[in-house]
Amino acid sequence: MSGDLIFSSLFLRALLAGGCLALACGLLGVFLVLRRDAMISHGLSHVAFAGVALGLALNLMPVVFSVVISLAGSLLILRLKEQARLPGDTAIALLSSGGLALAVFLMSIKKDFGAELMAYLFGDILAIGPSEVYLAVGLAVVVSAGIFLNLSRFIFMTFDREAASVSGIGLKGLDRLLVMMSAVTIVLGLRIVGLLLVTGLTVIPAAAALQLARNFRQALLLSSLFSLLSILGGIVLAYVLNLPASAAIIFLALFIFILGFLFKRLKGQQTM
Questions:
Q1: What is this structure's pTM?
Q2: What is the largest CA-CA distance in the chain?
Q3: Is residue 115 predicted with pLDDT exceeding 60?
C-alpha cells in the first residue's frame, strides 16, 4: 500500500466518515441490543434503500432524500406498535418488506441508475464524497449529544420501562429520539457497508462489548471502540488484501465478537 494512497483524499475521507459512523453505531447499538430492537436497523435499512432509489428516480440528492424517508419510516414503526398493537418485529417486517418492494419496483422501471444503486446495496466507503463526510461528522455530534444528554433516562427506560413510565419519564419522546437517530445512522451506513451488512455494523460491536463490559458506561465505550476498530481496520485490510471494504469491516467485527466470547468463556471457567 503506497504512501500516496494512504494519504489520498479518498482514504482520509473514508477514515473520517468511518470513524464518525463507528461512534454513532457503537453508542446506539448497545441500546438496540438490550431493548431487543436489534432488527430495527434491518427494517430501516430497507426503508433507506427505497429512499435512495426514489431520490435517484426523481433526480434528487439520494442521501438527503433517504434520510427524510427513513425518519418517516422510523416514526411509522413506532406508530404501528402503539396504535395497531403489533409486536415490534411484525411492524418492522411490514415496513421492511414494503421498502424493499418499492426499491425493486423503481429499479425495474428505471434501469439507468442501477450501478449507482448497487453502491448502496453493497457499500463503497472509498467513494464517499465531501458532503457525506460532513453528514457523518454531524451525525456523530447529534447522536453523541442525544445519548449523553439523556443517558440516565435511556438507561432507566432500557432496564425497567414500567418503573420509568411511573416515574414520569416521557417514554414516547425517548423512543422517537432513539429510532430517529438510528434511522439517520443507517442511511450513512448504507454508503459505508451497504444494505446487506449495515445491521451487522450496528449490532455486532455492541454484542461484543456486552460480553466484556462490567457496567453500562463501559459497554458504551467498548462498543464504540470495537466499532471504530472494525471500520478503520477493515479499510486498511481492504487495501492490503484487495478485499471489498464492507466485507472486511464486518469480518473484523465478527472476529472481535468471537474473541470477546471466547475470553468470557475462558474467564468463566477459571472462576469456577
A1: 0.86
A2: 62
A3: yes
Query: What residue spans define the domains of the chain?
Result: 3-264
Cell numbers linked to 102: 418499492
Residue 246's closest CA among 160, 123, 76? 123
* Residues across the chain: 272
What is the C-alpha to C-alpha distance for residues 82 and 267, in angstroms, rounded to an integer? 42
Radius of gyration of the chain (CA): 19
50-108 residue pLDDT tens: 888 888 888 778 888 888 888 998 888 888 877 767 676 787 888 888 888 988 888 78
**Measured between alpha carbons, how far apart are the two ends of the chain, in Å?**
47
Contact yes or no for 53/170 (Cβ under 8 A)? no
* pLDDT tens readout for residues 128-160: 778 778 888 888 888 889 999 988 998 898 888
CA dist 39 and 13 (Å) reads: 29
Q: What are phi and psi of 7, to 5 degrees?
A: -100, 15
The fold of the 3-264 domain, in CATH, is ABC transporter involved in vitamin B12 uptake, BtuC (1.10.3470)
- CB distance 232 to 22 below 8 Å: yes
Identify residue 227 by its one-letter amino acid code: S
Give the SS3 label for residue 181.
Answer: helix
Q: Return the C-alpha cell found at 114.
A: 442501477
Q: What is the dihedral of CA 234, 245, 183, 112, to 10 degrees?
A: 170
